[in-house]
């Protein structure tokens, strides 16, 4: 908790007072010591090998006779330069194995198609159907490949080929962020010219403070703590969660200073309670909330029921009690009730494809929830979270622009661990096949790498938008454009234009 109690506030005030009586030399010395003790937040990313590599992107087939003829003719042309003879026609090394193209190495193929253009008579390159079949139509094979690369390297993926996709599309692709050239040079969060903060407050802030005549705070202060990144690790589905996975979630969260949300029975059974762990308290097992003393900063009630909420609050006066709620029909009424009960953290859990109440995409629902809190004059008193539907780094800032404070991740963490998901990925009714004999340390580093990559991409976006901290991005819809709005503006006068992105 960042909250100071009254005696600490007094002490801090006395220190400030005594600072004002220091000589310039003493003040400079104290300032120097304070500056030297400052550590800039940093995530240690380390390249981490694959335990269960993805299927190759391409299948390379080579006609042996055609290749033999090529090698014979190349042998005469490049006599003595055997590495050249046996590597052509691919500069990426697909044909550079011990027996050259007679046993190609498709894992090195990037799909440039040079070989097929040069030698269409004996080389073919095709997409690998096994790779394309991974995931589903939302968490598709491209997204899985990107997460896999981010978790392996911990860096921002760079393609160097420009953007080849379409502009505008369904879901999150319907929103563009405003990256103004004017502000860009002054904001550089990655290379350190300027600090861009990704810290998020979790909890409730009062809308005003009251002080007595002596300057002492007499109203309730903020009840919140901070985490270093705008995402938390949410519990995997019941089908998948295990004691080992829960420990990985906890240690990864501690490593990067965020939160791991885990079922209370697993937390208790494995003694995982810590400031970074948020136990989920089932409505039918409220008593277990009393067990969380060892530094637990927050618990989440699994569903909304005002009496249960009041009971957990009175049982755990020093802990922030949040509520976890499905983004299903009737959420608006529950949100109103939660506002009346002063719930400090509301955590929505959406369908993994982002289709919620009335078939609307999550973006609309988040905007509505944020607006409801604003209209009620309640926005800063509540931290709004959502799990589900965020599977790529660019979804993260868009969700925050729609009004979230932070995002809950689960599927991307499983993909980072090279789990193969199966079943209905739109709901939480899916299974996962993990690499054989993977170690905890390996899995933690893969998750930390993913976190580092997504944070760096967040910094890129914030830098490009000229926003110096992620807290200021929340609900900043003035910095976003919707493809459908732009199309309506441009084409609505044209006969035959249907609108709505059709
Ligand atoms: S497509 Fe490009 S990378 Fe792949 S084998 Fe052919 S030349 Fe090599």
Helix content: 25-40%
Uncertain regions spanning at least 5 consecutive residues: none
- Rg of Cα set: 27 Å
CATH superfamily of the largest domain: Aldolase class I
Shape verdict: globular
| Structural class designation | alpha/beta
Tell me the domain tally: 3
Short description:
The protein is of the alpha/beta class and 502 residues long. The chain is built from 16 helices and 16 strands.
Overall description:
The protein is globular. The strands form five sheets. An eight-stranded parallel beta sheet has the order 6-13-12-11-10-9-8-7. A two-stranded antiparallel sheet has the order 1-2. The chain has 16 helices and 16 strands. A hairpin with a 4-residue loop joins strand 14 and strand 15. The protein folds into three domains: 31 residues; 74 residues; 304 residues, TIM Barrel, CATH 3.20.20.70. It has 502 residues and is α/β, with parallel strands linked by helices. The site of iron/sulfur cluster (SF4) has 12 residues, from helix 5.
Question: Topology of this protein?
Answer:
Blueprint: H1 6-19, H2 24-36, E1 58-62, H3 64-77, H4 82-87, H5 114-118, E2 123-127, H6 129-132, H7 141-153, E3 175-177, E4 200-204, E5 223-227, E6 231-233, H8 243-256, E7 260-263, H9 264-269, E8 277-282, E9 298-302, H10 306-315, E10 320-326, H11 331-340, E11 345-349, H12 362-375, E12 383-387, H13 395-401, E13 406-409, H14 411-416, E14 420-424, E15 429-433, H15 440-465, E16 480-482, H16 483-491
Parallel strand pairs: 6-13, 7-8, 8-9, 9-10, 10-11, 11-12, 12-13
Antiparallel strand pairs: 1-2, 3-16, 4-5, 14-15
């Amino acid at each position: 908790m960042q909250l100071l109690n009254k005696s600490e506030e007094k002490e801090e005030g006395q220190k400030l007072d005594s600072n004002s009586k220091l000589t310039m030399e003493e003040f400079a010395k104290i300032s120097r010591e304070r500056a030297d003790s400052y550590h800039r937040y940093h995530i240690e990313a380390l390249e981490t090998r694959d335990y269960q590599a993805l299927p190759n992107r391409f299948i390379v087939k080579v006609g042996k006779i055609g290749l033999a003829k090529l090698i014979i003719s190349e042998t005469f042309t490049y006599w003595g330069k055997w590495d050249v003879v046996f590597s052509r026609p691919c500069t990426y090394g697909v044909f550079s194995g011990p027996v050259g193209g007679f046993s190609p190495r498709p894992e090195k193929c990037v799909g440039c198609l040079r070989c097929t253009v040069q030698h269409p008579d004996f080389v073919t390159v095709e997409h690998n159907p096994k790779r394309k079949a991974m995931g589903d139509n939302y968490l598709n094979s491209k997204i899985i490949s990107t997460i896999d690369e981010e978790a392996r390297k911990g860096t921002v993926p760079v393609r160097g080929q420009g953007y080849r996709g379409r502009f505008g599309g369904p879901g999150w692709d319907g929103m563009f962020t405003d990256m103004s050239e004017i502000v860009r040079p002054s904001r550089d969060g990655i290379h350190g010219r300027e600090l861009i903060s990704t810290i998020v407050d979790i909890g409730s802030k009062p809308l005003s403070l009251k002080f007595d005549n002596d300057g002492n705070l007499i109203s309730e202060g903020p009840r919140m703590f901070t985490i270093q990144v705008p995402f938390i690790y949410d519990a995997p589905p019941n089908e998948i969660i295990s004691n080992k996975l829960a420990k990985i979630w906890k240690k990864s969260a501690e490593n990067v200073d965020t939160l791991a949300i885990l079922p209370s029975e697993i937390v208790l059974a494995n003694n995982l309670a810590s400031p970074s762990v948020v136990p989920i308290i089932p409505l039918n097992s409220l008593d277990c909330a009393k067990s969380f003393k060892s530094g637990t900063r927050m618990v989440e009630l699994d569903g909304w029921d005002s009496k249960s909420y009041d009971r957990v609050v009175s049982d755990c006066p020093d802990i922030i009690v949040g509520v976890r709620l499905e983004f299903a029909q009737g959420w608006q009424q529950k949100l109103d009730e939660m506002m009346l009960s002063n719930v400090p953290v509301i955590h929505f859990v959406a369908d993994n494809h982002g289709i919620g109440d009335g078939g609307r995409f999550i973006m609309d629902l988040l905007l509505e929830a944020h607006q409801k809190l604003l209209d009620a004059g309640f926005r800063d008193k509540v931290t709004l979270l959502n799990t589900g539907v965020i599977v790529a780094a660019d979804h993260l800032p868009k969700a925050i622009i729609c009004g979230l404070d932070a995002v809950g991740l689960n599927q991307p963490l499983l993909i980072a661990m090279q789990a193969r998901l199966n079943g209905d990925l739109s709901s939480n009714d899916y299974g996962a096949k993990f690499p054989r004999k993977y170690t905890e340390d390996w899995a933690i580093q893969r998750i930390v790498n993913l976190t580092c990559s997504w944070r760096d991409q967040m910094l890129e976006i914030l830098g490009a938008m000229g926003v110096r901290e992620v807290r200021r991005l929340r609900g900043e819809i003035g910095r976003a454009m919707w493809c459908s709005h732009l199309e309506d503006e441009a084409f609505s006068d044209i006969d035959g234009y249907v609108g709505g992105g059709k």
